[in-house]
Amino acid sequence: MKITPSARVLRMLGEIEFDEWQCIAELIDNAFDDFTEIHRSGTPWAGGYRVSVELPDSAQGQLVITDTGRGMTYDRLERAVRAGWSGNDMHDKLGLFGMGFNVSTARLGKRTRVLTTRQGDTEWIGVEIDLDRIGDDFEAEDITEPKADPNEHGTRIVISRLHPTRAGWLRKNGSALRNILGQVYSWLLLERPFELWVGGFQVKPVRHCRWGDDRSVLYNNKERIPAYIEIDQRLENGLACGDCGQWQLTDRDTCEDCGSNRLTARERRVHGWLGIQRYMHKNDYGIDFLRNGRKILRWDKQLFTWRNPDGAAGNEEPEYPVDLAHQGGRIIGEIHLDHVPVTYQKDAFEYGDRSWRSAVEIVRGVAPLLPRRAADMGYEENTSPLALLFKAFRRNDAGLRYLVPGDGRKPIHDDTRRWGQEFRRGNPDYQTDERWWQAVEDHEAAKSRGKNAKAAASTPGRPDEAAVMEALGFNGADTAEPTTPANETGGAKLGTEVESPKEGGASDSSAPALEQRPETRHERVTRYMENSTTYPALSRSFGHPRVGFVEVETRQLTAGGLVDENLHRTPVLLDQRAGNSLVAFLDLDHAIFQKFGADPADLLLAEVAVLLRVRAETEWSHSELIAAIRAESLPATALDAQLISAEAQELLAEIRHRMVSELDRTGEAEKAYHFLSPDELTATEHAMIANGKVTRTVDLGTSGEFLLHVPALFLVRLVESLPSAFMDNRVFQGVYEGVASASARRLSLARTVGYLSDVATQATFAGASLPNQLLRTRLSIRLLADDLAEEK
Fold it and tell me: Could you tell me which of 625, 544, 538, 627 has the C-alpha nearest to residue 583?
């Protein structure tokens, strides 16, 4: 069988850079192409659509790829394995049988056997390509094998004498290979009845963990923007060459690139969706671009960068994520571009092709995503699907406004990422977005309760200063009266006699008193479930490999108090459920939290440690066990200076933007600019130049945008110098002009400035800090975030 124009060329193909998974994918592509033709024809197909990849079990092992397709004739097989030849249409198929086949097989091993048979054939026919034996006669050995079942059909590729490094990778990375292929072929595996097996395990499609079709946010209190946007833009049909694949500008008889007369009219369509991931991630976000069902680009982020068409080469400005880059991003999508040509490695599109540029314009528009930048450069508002999601979801404040789960104070990004891992593992409790949605609603409820408590602290009718003092917690001795367990459970005290009404509604004082039935544990726990909401930050697996783990659903009580078996008030109560699961109730109104400021995690860990210590009969001390469980189950609570600095910078980025908006709204930008010292002005200019913002110094005060680049500690001094511009629910909730007393003003301002100073200091000096300093900064971050005004 003649297979190549040159034996040397065939051997050289193995030097082309292809990763191991790309080599496997090239061979899978050809099988899926065959499956697609069968499926589109509507012909019933006995045996199903299955591709199996057997991985080598040793350095001398072999790689086998088998499919249940239609098989090939001898002539078709000869053309299929001939290097440099492709009989596939460049627009309808995944594979380029010929060049792709020879590159992938030559890169994997030195000997390849291809066997194929059709339904009804009496034997398998094939060819053996041995790179060490092929000479300049360009002929490979024909082979045949007997066939036990005449109805058998398909193709089998056996690659042996594998290259040691690639054989080693395939032996050790079966799981990683399945994960990559599960991403690359996810659409085909979900939308078509195709099966892919690798190393004896079925490849599962890697689905996107996105918010449901019905989720949305209200932008500027007037525009409802969904978290999932479908795209289906049909372009005018084009004339394409069947040989080189190039689209033609006008009606022609021959291809202007290669001279072929195989020109046909073809559909050009951009379709798919953009959406919001349920969690943020530093790497796993971006848009997948597909061609004929295979993902060419995964988690691609190039559309998040605006490229100025009028600028010089390299004039590129990332637009997402910028403000909160520490946490990553969450805009995702799948866009099908079957008409756009790809590179021979199938890891990129031809970006210079006009069909790619048209698709980009449909998905993200031509203007910057940032409205202010677009306006400054003379563009109309960008209304593309990506721009809509960008303006509605670019920030990540917890709550309904941005569809971000929280714990009543802040986002719970670590938890939502962990839930995302459970989604990927197929845990049925995490397949819908209900857990994330419940955390959003619980955050809003907790935030509302906090606001109500804060409002109740400032009793109307009292002098201004007294009201502010009380709101700040300087309210003298604790005057709360203890409540009895009976009052907390909502029932009467044990032993209390209750009169029984006489017939007709009247009571008889001489009737014997009846003792009210005490509440059972089951009834009490049921009431706790009804009067509580999920506490996401502490709902997880707790434990350690040496003592085992328990799955804990933590719930925060919303009414009443918790009591234990002896009706004693308790801040934490565990309720054992089936297996290794339990429910933990928290009473955050308990004095241990309200009066002593205890961390709910500490008390929950203490309770869980008791349970696990008894179960495991460990020799660890109780404190040692608590320390081990915290390190294993709550790693995000560690006092990591780098992480806390990143949180401080993230919060400051939010505050900067709010202060800019307020200065521009009130026209006080120039006034604020004059507070910059010479050193601060120099630092601001340097920061702007480093971020690609070239602005003359004399123009800095014309808008508040300079605040995005000033030293962090300047923000502290500016709030102290212009409190009326930022207090009173403008940027911060703290009252200022709303009270008449000068001392109350100073006290309210000092609180806000104190938190801001701690945060700005940590953001400026991110070096090593003492644990108490980091604790103080972390608390200031939370308190300052709570002090931010509601976004208008």
Answer: 538
